[in-house]
């Protein structure tokens, strides 16, 4: 990377920090404040245990979230929202392919 590119990047970062417009692109992701875990799970017609195992959550977390004793943190809320919209894709992404399973 040339020195000019580094300086340009630093100038853009400084402008962004000051709230000025820059030529760089940015995207804001909205993390949902609340997620109805039980509704998502029931739409998928899954038990708490099945849902937890399939998507890598602990069963205790699923129970606590659904009973309102605890609430998912930001990253869990994002994953739950993605599961709600794209359950098959998330399942595919989290399921090892046959080739990867053979390597382990």
TrEMBL record:
<dbReference type="InterPro" id="IPR001387">
    <property type="entry name" value="Cro/C1-type_HTH"/>
</dbReference>
<dbReference type="InterPro" id="IPR032758">
    <property type="entry name" value="MqsA/HigA-2"/>
</dbReference>
<dbReference type="InterPro" id="IPR010982">
    <property type="entry name" value="Lambda_DNA-bd_dom_sf"/>
</dbReference>
<feature type="domain" description="HTH cro/C1-type">
    <location>
        <begin position="37"/>
        <end position="73"/>
    </location>
</feature>
<dbReference type="Pfam" id="PF15731">
    <property type="entry name" value="MqsA_antitoxin"/>
</dbReference>
<keyword id="KW-0238">DNA-binding</keyword>
<keyword id="KW-0804">Transcription</keyword>
<protein>
    <submittedName>
        <fullName>Type II toxin-antitoxin system MqsA family antitoxin</fullName>
    </submittedName>
</protein>
<dbReference type="InterPro" id="IPR052359">
    <property type="entry name" value="HTH-type_reg/antitoxin"/>
</dbReference>
<keyword id="KW-0805">Transcription regulation</keyword>
């Amino acid at each position: 990377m040339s020195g000019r590119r580094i300086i340009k990047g630093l100038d853009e970062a400084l402008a962004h920090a000051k709230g000025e417009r820059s030529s760089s692109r940015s995207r804001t992701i909205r993390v949902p404040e609340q997620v109805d875990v039980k509704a998502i799970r029931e739409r998928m017609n899954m038990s708490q245990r099945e849902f937890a195992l399939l998507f890598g959550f602990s069963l205790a977390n699923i129970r606590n979230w659904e009973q309102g004793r605890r609430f998912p943190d930001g990253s869990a809320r994002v994953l739950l929202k993605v599961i709600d919209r794209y359950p098959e894709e998330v399942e595919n992404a989290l399921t090892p392919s046959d080739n990867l399973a053979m390597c382990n």
